[in-house]
Amino acid sequence: MMTASLNAYVIVSAVLFAIGFFGVLIRRNTLIVFMSLELMLIASTLALVAFSRVNGTMDGNVFVFFILTVAAAEVAVGLAIIVALFRRRHTVQIDQLDTLKN
Amino acid sequence: MAQFLFLLFAIFTVLCAVGVVVNKNAVNASICLILCLVGVAGLFVQLDAYLLAFVLLLVYAGAVAALFLFIVMLLDVQGKETFGLRGIRTIAGFVAFALLLAGIGSVALKGQIVSSPPVSVAGGAQLKLYAYQLFTTYLLPVQIIGFLLLISMLGVIVLSKKHEITEDAP
After folding, report:
1. How many residue pairs bridge chain A and chain B with CB atoms within 8 Å of each other?
2. Do A22 and B163 touch (CB under 8 A)?
3. pLDDT the model gives residue B170
4. Distance, in angstroms, between B165 CA and closest chain A CA?
5. Would you say residue B92 lies in a domain?
6. A13-68 per-position pLDDT tens digit
7. CB–CB of B46 and A71 under 8 A?
8. Has residue B151 been placed in a domain?
């Protein structure tokens, strides 16, 4: 059923990655920075699945399986850290979390 | 038809990703994230990765995005974020975005990834293939992932409890 070329999938994945990267750099809200990180992760999985499909092997797909599992664990720990940070500092804005700066 | 579906899902995914980044409200951003994941799952289906599409919807759109929504609700973050386009960070962001776009453009215009014609995998046998790979070639990574999940669960419990103890101490 794959009619779109591999190039098209790689371009979509790279555009997603670029948007996520832009979000990480430009946003101040920690939660949205975290969401942009997830976006970048998803973009890389899309590229892996596309390459795996073109090569006709299962390795890329199995690897994406592992990536999804690690991402779930990462999100749980990251959100717990953000909640702990919010309890201590009462903010999630990045430019107010500058204790190391001074 | 498949070409049209690819275009539809690709444009939908990219638009929702832009929505995640530009939305001021964190709740709207996480809803956009869910929609973006649905679009990526559609792209996975077009790549014949049905199981991955299903797992993506279950784990990501079901659990992770719901967790995001839950945390946004718990923290009760007001939409007071200064979305000002100023400072060196913004310049760095735009420069990095432009560089990545230039890279994408060069791939789109010049690069042609040569590949053998796609080998079709029988749809019904896919689950068996996954299971075979997971329990033969990737047996050790599966066990390590299991330990990783256990460790992250313990870590989350510790992170959630620790603060109350330190608050009582002084």
Report:
1. 226
2. no
3. 47
4. 12
5. no
6. 989 999 998 898 888 888 899 999 999 999 999 999 988 888 878 888 889 989 99
7. no
8. yes
Give the CATH number, domain containing residue B15: 1.20.120.1200
CB A5 within 8 A of CB B117: no
Tokens 């109350």 sit on residue: B164
Tokens of A92: 């999630």
ipTM score assigned to the predicted complex? 0.90
**B12 and A CB contact within 8 Å:** no
pLDDT in tens, A75-96: 999 999 998 888 888 888 887 7
Query: How many separate domains does chain B show?
Result: 2
Tokens of B70: 């839950």
CB–CB of B30 and A83 under 8 A?
no
The whole domain housing B143 covers 126-170
**E strand or H helix at A89:** helix A59-89
DSSP-assigned letters across all residues of B90-109:
HHHHHHHHHHHHHHHHHHHH
Domains and CATH numbers, chain A: 6-96 (1.10.287.3510)
Sorted by sequence, the CB contacts under 8 Å of residue A46 that are 6+ apart come out as A9, A12, A13, A16, B40, B43, B44
User: Is B52 part of a structural domain of the chain?
Assistant: yes
What pTM value is reported for the model?
0.85
